[in-house]
């Protein structure tokens, strides 16, 4: 048996069920590794003591029928966890301890999982490098001083560095898929409405979606099966029959039609990404899939549309952090002064930038030119996909236009930072499922990902295609454990 | 006022007309709030009816309370209005301590109810007031400034309670019309059970839009909005004061600024709250946490079939079926409790007597004791018994008043009162004749005077006979027999 922490969710679950490993042993192994991995700055808040207790409790009365029997899991610090501090990576929620549990995390615990702790992320999930977190940047285990991507940077780094078997992130414009791509891991953003948003600190409500982040596609299917559920507490949750994703997982993609959108060949895209894409296409062909050239004509407008819609919603969603009811408060002589001081001191620069953009695009006199127009373009982007999906079953693209960059490299250039999301935001705007799988490496040996985009509610199909491709690609993420301390 | 009862304000040979539009905020009658399951009960300890949603905790999401939607549709039907099959909830963004989300969920471009109307019964005839729209929105919490000397305290019990904002067209022309309009609106909603209309508890408040123009002018003047007035009396005072302020400005050759004003009830004047330039930019946009609201024709039909008889229809029926005057009918239908009481009474008793007794004696008692008819000290059942005692001649109308006075004390049964006090009317001609004989015997001198032409003495004999009967003699019989005896 290989080292505990390097095992997949599938292996750990099997080992627990076959009583080869106890929940206590597994939990302890991950905690021990976390203690030696502080340099990565992955955890905002750990739950180690309680996790040990819960694992013992599980072992004393194990239920092997559960889908995550005694499996310790750390989650992005955007999920509200009952009794465990939830910060959203922000000073303004630095002292916030929810009295309630998000539906998605509740789904994990209901299937036997144990909370290991809360993972670092960009402040309010706004960022592509985990550098906007109040709790500092996260190191990408792939290489020192490399960003892990964002906003689910703590999550991607935790999976890649074996600090958690699997994790869940949230994806508003690429926040699961881009960090997965940067760390050589798998990340899936489900169809909008698949996973409940109840209890997830909101960034942009019409785009936010929780999803699994894992070492491989099979684990991804296992985790999606647990977290996806209809929830009456979220009015945008959709009541449809969910697949038994792990059970129905299959590498047989013969005859599947896979679209290749020409608009995703952007200027200045590195050759190695072009090559990665070509390799992906030929692997898909090898698996018996049919490759079809398609067009998504409004792709160019996706990024500007996203950077109007998401900040607009965020500017309103973040209005509740005002120092009145909970969280950080900086006292003032009067209400207005208290607001100004609390929000000036409590929010970081990127969050303030987006609140200002959002406030601006919703202002009277600008609403029609920005917000309303963006909503119309969003419909066109959606229609592009609808048209494409009348011809193909799935779409294959690169996940990101580059590999992981150095910490600090883009912090002073927000626009170049935003460009990271160019391949991922259209999928959120259209509400579609998309998955990023590791597909190769660049000249620096940094991982690169491919994205498979599916029809609404067709997660099974993109999981199957990814599963087939994963097998052909045979990606190995040789990480040297350079950060470990004694 | 001019003779055709138009409301005009006069200034040196000029007559100004006052144009009024109301935005009424009516609290939806519902056990729970618009987007959460917290209770809406009035008067609870501060912050005891607050859910995580109401307090806008991170990650909390609104879930529409379908009952409130049905209530709004019901009200729309009562206002003869168009129900919009698709409407949208928007966020109205502004910061205030008692607005936990930092935005109010409201309906902006696409309200649930469109144009409708309300008919007013004015002394000089009926008048139709147009309804522009009705939309649903959340109430805010309450800021309390006078408990702690250094801090403002916030009570979130009201936060998230469902309100219907009912916007009238600028069709109202006088404080009297405003009075009748509010009462009619309240009456319709109480009939429907969609708003209790309780102004003391803040269930009904209004923003009042006022402008003035010279009589005969067709263009509207610049309007001012007076925010959050919570009684009809204050609305009327605010309108009169604001209209006169605007007219004074015009008379001085000054312009009226479009602005939001507040009514100071102590000084009986409005004062500026914020100008148009300072108006908030609420940055309305569709709430992404809620899908557009879609209402099926089936639901509308189902609600329609549950709509009770409304005041206008009831009034018509009372006039047609019971021969009531329009005035009597208007009074009896003005409040659902009153009309229910009336219909209960007339189930087993005379309509005419019931009308008189309810609008007369009963209303007098309610007024005196400041009670609603629902708190009436005399039940419909006992009042109808009393009316039957009058009708069948058991007691006279006069005795009935005595009995009624006693009934008030603990809703006593009039039959028992009459029996115990021996108040039953004496209607036996033989007995009456006997006591009249006695009166004639005892007053032979007066009889002589009467017979010699002093007709006025007849009343004296009636009084004596009534006294002899201890007030119980049937007055008609006493009259008849006396006449026969004295003139015979």
What's the total helix number of chain A? 15
Give me the Rg of chain A, rounded: 21 Å
Oligomer: heterodimer
The fraction of residues assigned to DSSP E strands of chain B is 15-25%
List the total number of helices of chain B.
15
Helix content of chain B: 25-40%
Helix share bin of chain A: 25-40%
CATH homologous superfamily title of the domain at 4-257 and 460-473 in chain A:
Amidase signature (AS) domain
Shape of chain B: elongated
Beta-strand content of chain A: 5-15%
* Mean pLDDT score of chain A: 97
CA distance, first residue to last residue of chain A: 23 Å
- Major sheet details of chain A: 8 strands, mixed
Shape call of chain A: globular
Low-confidence stretches of chain A: none
Quantity of strands of chain B, as a count = 16
The CATH class of the domain at 4-257 and 460-473 in chain A turns out to be: Alpha Beta
Class based on secondary structure composition and strand pairing of chain A? alpha/beta
Number of domains of chain B: 3
Write out the strand line-up for the largest beta sheet of chain A, numbering strands in chain order.
Answer: 4-6-5-10-11-9-7-8
The CATH topology assignment of the domain at 4-257 and 460-473 in chain A is Amidase signature (AS) enzymes
Features:
heterodimer; A: 486 residues; alpha/beta; Amidase signature (AS) enzymes; B: 488 residues; alpha+beta; Arc Repressor Mutant, subunit A; 3 domains; 9-stranded mixed sheet; 15 helices; elongated
Please explain how this structure is put together.
- The mean pLDDT of chain A is 97.
- With 486 residues, chain A is an alpha/beta fold.
- Helix content of chain A is 36%, strand content 13%.
- By secondary structure, chain B is α+β, with helices and mostly antiparallel strands.
- In chain B, the strands form four sheets. In chain B, strands 1, 2, 6, 7, 10, 11, 12, 13 and 14 form a nine-stranded mixed β-sheet that branches. Chain B has a three-stranded antiparallel β-sheet with strand order 5-4-15, with no helix packed on it.
- In chain B, strand 13 and strand 14 (269-275) form a beta hairpin.
- In chain B, helix 2 (175-192) packs antiparallel against helix 3 and helix 7 (336-346) packs across helix 9.
- The two termini of chain B are 60 Å apart.
- The A-B interface holds A 79-80, 86, 88, 93, 96, 98-100, 102, 197-202, 204-206, 232-236, 312-313, 315-316, 318-320, 322, 324-326, 335, 339, 359, 362-364, 367, 371 and B 52, 55-64, 91, 93, 95-97, 100-103, 152, 154, 281, 283-285, 288-291.
């Amino acid at each position: 048996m290989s080292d505990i922490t390097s095992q997949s969710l599938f292996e750990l679950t099997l080992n627990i069920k076959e009583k080869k490993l106890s929940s206590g042993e597994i939990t302890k192994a991950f905690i021990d590794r976390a203690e030696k991995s502080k340099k990565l700055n992955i955890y905002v808040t750990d739950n180690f003591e309680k996790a040990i207790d819960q694992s013992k409790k599980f072992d004393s009365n194990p239920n092997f029928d559960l889908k995550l029997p005694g499996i310790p899991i750390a989650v992005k610090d955007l999920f509200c966890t009952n009794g465990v501090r939830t910060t959203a990576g922000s000073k303004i929620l630095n002292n916030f301890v929810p009295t309630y549990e998000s539906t998605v995390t509740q789904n994990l615990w209901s299937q036997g999982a144990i909370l290991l702790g809360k993972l670092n992320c960009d402040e309010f999930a706004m960022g592509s490098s985990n550098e906007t977190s109040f709790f500092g940047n996260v190191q990408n285990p792939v290489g020192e001083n490399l960003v892990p991507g964002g906003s689910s940077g703590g999550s991607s780094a935790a999976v890649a560095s074996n600090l958690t078997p699997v994790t869940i992130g949230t994806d508003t414009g690429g926040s699961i898929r881009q960090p997965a791509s940067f760390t050589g891991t798998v990340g899936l953003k489900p169809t909008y409405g698949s996973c409940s948003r109840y209890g997830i600190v909101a960034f942009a409500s019409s785009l936010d979606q929780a999803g699994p982040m894992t070492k491989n596609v099979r684990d991804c299917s296992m985790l999606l099966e647990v977290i996806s559920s209809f929830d009456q507490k979220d009015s945008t949750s959709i009541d449809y029959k969910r697949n038994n994703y792990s059970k129905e997982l299959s590498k047989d993609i013969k005859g599947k039609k896979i679209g290749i959108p020409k608009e995703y060949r952007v200027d200045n895209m590195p050759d190695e990404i072009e090559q990665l894409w070509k390799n992906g296409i030929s692997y898909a062909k090898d698996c018996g899939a049919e490759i079809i050239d398609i067009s998504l004509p409004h792709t160019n407008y996706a990024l500007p549309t996203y950077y109007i819609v998401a900040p607009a919603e965020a500017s309103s969603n973040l209005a509740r952090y005002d120092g009145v009811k909970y969280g950080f408060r900086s006292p003032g002589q009067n209400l207005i002064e208290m607001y100004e001081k609390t929000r000036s001191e409590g929010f970081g620069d990127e969050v303030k930038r987006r609140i200002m953009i959002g406030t601006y695009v919703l202002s009277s006199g600008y609403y029609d030119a920005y917000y309303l127009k963006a909503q119309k373009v969003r419909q066109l982007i959606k229609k592009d996909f609808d048209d494409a999906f009348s011809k193909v079953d799935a779409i294959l693209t690169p996940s990101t236009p580059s590999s992981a960059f150095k910490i600090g490299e883009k912090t002073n250039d927000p626009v170049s930072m935003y460009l990271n999301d160019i391949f991922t935001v259209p999928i959120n705007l259209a509400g579609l499922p998309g998955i990023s799988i590791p597909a190769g490496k660049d000249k620096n040996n940094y991982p690169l990902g491919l994205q498979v985009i599916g029809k609404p509610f067709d997660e099974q199909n993109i999981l199957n295609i990814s599963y087939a491709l994963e097998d052909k690609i045979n990606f190995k993420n040789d990480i040297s454990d350079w950060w470990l301390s004694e | 006022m001019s003779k055709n009862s138009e409301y005009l304000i006069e200034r040196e040979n000029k007559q100004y007309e006052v144009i009024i539009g109301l935005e009424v905020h009516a609290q939806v009658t519902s056990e729970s709030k618009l987007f959460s399951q917290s209770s809406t009960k009035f008067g609870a300890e501060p912050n005891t009816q607050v859910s995580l949603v109401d307090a806008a905790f991170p990650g909390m999401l609104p879930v529409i309370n379908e009952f409130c939607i049905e209530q709004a549709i019901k009200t729309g039907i009562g206002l003869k209005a168009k129900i919009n099959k698709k409407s949208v909830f928007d966020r109205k963004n502004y910061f205030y301590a008692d607005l936990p989300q930092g935005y109010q969920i409201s309906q902006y471009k696409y309200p649930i109810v469109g144009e409708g109307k309300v008919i007013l019964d004015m002394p000089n005839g009926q008048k139709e007031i147009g309804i522009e729209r009705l939309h649903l929105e959340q109430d805010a919490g309450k800021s309390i400034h006078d408990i702690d000397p250094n801090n403002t305290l916030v009570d979130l019990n009201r936060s998230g309670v469902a309100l219907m904002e009912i916007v009238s067209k600028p069709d109202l022309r006088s404080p009297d019309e405003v009075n009748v309009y509010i009462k009619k609106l309240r009456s319709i909603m109480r009939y429907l059970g969609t708003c209790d209309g309780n102004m003391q508890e803040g269930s009904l408040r209004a923003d009042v839009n006022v402008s003035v123009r010279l009589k005969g002018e067709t263009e509207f003047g610049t309007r001012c909005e007076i925010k959050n007035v919570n009684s009809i009396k204050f609305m009327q005072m605010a309108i009169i004061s604001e209209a006169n302020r605007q007219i004074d400005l015009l008379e001085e050759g000054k312009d009226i600024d479009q602005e939001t004003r507040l009514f100071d009830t102590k000084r009986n004047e409005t004062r500026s709250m914020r100008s148009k330039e300072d108006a908030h930019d609420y940055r309305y946009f569709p709430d992404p946490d809620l899908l557009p609201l879609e209402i099926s024709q089936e639901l509308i039909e189902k609600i329609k079939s549950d709509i009770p008889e409304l005041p206008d229809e009831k009034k018509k029926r009372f006039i047609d079926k019971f021969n009531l005057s329009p005035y009597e009918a208007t009074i009896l239908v003005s409040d659902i409790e009153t009309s229910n009481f009336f219909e209960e009474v007339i189930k087993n008793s005379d309509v005419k007597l019931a009308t008189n007794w309810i609008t007369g004696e009963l209303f007098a008692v309610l007024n005196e004791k400041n009670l609603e008819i629902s708190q009436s000290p005399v039940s419909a059942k006992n009042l109808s018994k009393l009316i039957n005692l009058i009708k069948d001649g058991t007691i006279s109308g006069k005795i009935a008043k005595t009995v009624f006075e006693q009934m008030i004390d603990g809703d006593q049964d009039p039959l028992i009162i009459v029996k115990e006090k021996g108040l039953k009317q004496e209607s036996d001609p033989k007995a009456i004749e006997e006591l009249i004989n006695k009166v004639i015997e005892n007053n032979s001198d007066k009889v002589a005077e009467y017979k010699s032409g002093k007709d006025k003495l007849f009343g004296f004999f009636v009084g004596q006979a009534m006294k002899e009967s201890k007030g119980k003699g049937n007055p008609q019989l006493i009259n008849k027999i006396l006449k026969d005896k004295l003139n015979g």
